[in-house]
## 1
Amino acid sequence: MDLEKRPAQQQKREAREPSEARQPPEARRAPEAQSAPERPPTPERPPTPERQPAPEGCLVVAIRIPVRIVVLVLVVPVRMVWDALVVGGRLLTDTVLRPAGRAVMWVGRAVLVWPCVALWRYAVVPLAQGVGWLAYRLLVVPAVWAYRYVLTPVGHAIAWAAAGVRAGGGWVARGVLAGLLWLYRWTVVPVGRSLAWLVVHLLVVPAGWLYRYALTPVGHAIAWVVMGVVWLVRMVFTGLWLGVYWTLRVLLVLPALAMWRWVLAPVGRFLAVVGREIGEALGHAWRVAGRISLAVGRFLANVFRWIVVEPSRWVYRTVLTPAGHFVRDVVWKPVAAAGRVVGRTTRQALTTARETVRQARAGLRSALFGQPTEPKPVHRREPRAAEARTLGSSTTALTKD
């Protein structure tokens, strides 16, 4: 029975597995998703609030208004005087200082720059060119000739002699060096080795034995004693330092710290608040005083225009301009026309007189010296193609008679 039931169960399992394999992956993941617990949503972070300025105390508010009123009363006259000085300085610069500066610059250029430029251009440069030409002809040319035809052959001869001396000296030096090497190898080296062996066996070996077996134990003992003394002295000085440190801390540092914390710091904060308020009050008062000064200046400018400029403009437009036109049309134009006529007549008379004098002078000259001969015209052109050029008819300077 067990053998019969087992194949049946196995057949059912094989029939169920292909059906599950034919299902889509979304359907197979659905039960897993349903069985998994849902995660709670992540809470969003609240936005970071902007940093608010620190609130001001009642002391700052109580100090600010009186200080600003007092500073404004003191600064307004100063600002008005300052603006008046600025306007006066600009007017003085535009009307006096700038033209004076330009005039002084022109005078300085005419007195200093132009003479120096002329002196450099027409005196120094030609003189330097002349001196350079003389130096070239009197120094450079002879020096080049002497170098080329005197010093160069002498230098070649000296170089040849030096090469011969160097070759002979090299042979002599090689022989001396070979002798010294032979003497060093067969004399100095054996003697040095013997002396080194004697020094090692008579001095170095006994000294090493003495240092290892005699001086080293004594040095260790002395080092232990010195270290104990140093430790004892250090402990004594440490105790003294701790005593002095706590004494100074209790007697000086703690009172000074209390004075700083409870007296100087509050006074400094108060003075800093007062100084800051005074500085801000000065800036605010300076700006307000500037606006007040601008309004006063505009009012004074309008008063000046109403009192001086407008009446002057009215007088110029209604009185002076018609009077000037009347004078120009009635007086100046007729006088100018008459002056032009007189000038034209005078020029014609002078021209006529000049021609008369020239004719009289020509007649007198012809009467005394005769009629002058007219110069023959000189033909400066090349001969024509029809005329043949020969030695007798050549126009060159070398073949002329």
## 2
Amino acid sequence: MTRWFRRYWAEEDVWFYFEASADGWVTRQVEFQGPSAKAITAASLAEWEVAQRAGTSGDYEATFGTTAEVPVHEWDDHEPQELTADEFETVWNTARAARQGRDGT
């Protein structure tokens, strides 16, 4: 079952938003940093895998970032705030537009 959740990292002032598969791997990840909530990541594991096979993973990572490299159940101090699919999609669409340069900044 797919899960959506977020957590805050105060040290870097970053909100992390995750979509995770039933086996705990992050399939999509969004990060917003600072008081202006600048989108710094809007990555999809499936898209990254396609880019890797095509030899363009560097370009993908420069635009969208990457997803977590270990499954959720291996994280330390994992205290997620659950989200609905709709809440995650709203965040995802906002971050993707920003990372693709469509946010007007």
